[in-house]
Design brief:
The chain is an all-alpha fold and about 60 residues long. The chain has helices spanning about 1-25, 35-64. The protein has 2 domains: about 1-30; about 30-64.
């Protein structure tokens, strides 16, 4: 009797874990694909980096 209990508990946990791995990504909302977001992110990031570089250059020129 005890052996069947542990056997069922083991298999139940394995099946539950497998179902959780398979079902949980399907239930989450999907984000935009990386390719669509990356163009805007790169443009904004480049603009911000260039702005910071200008400010840094101005600060350095004032110190010199």
């Amino acid at each position: 009797m005890q052996n069947k209990f542990w056997h069922g508990l083991l298999w139940g946990s394995l099946v539950g874990t497998f179902l959780g791995i398979v079902v949980s990504p399907m239930s989450k909302p999907r984000k935009k694909p990386i390719a669509e977001r990356s163009v805007e992110a790169i443009k904004d990031g480049t603009r911000q980096i260039m702005r910071q570089a200008r400010h840094t250059r101005k600060r350095l020129m004032k110190k010199l």
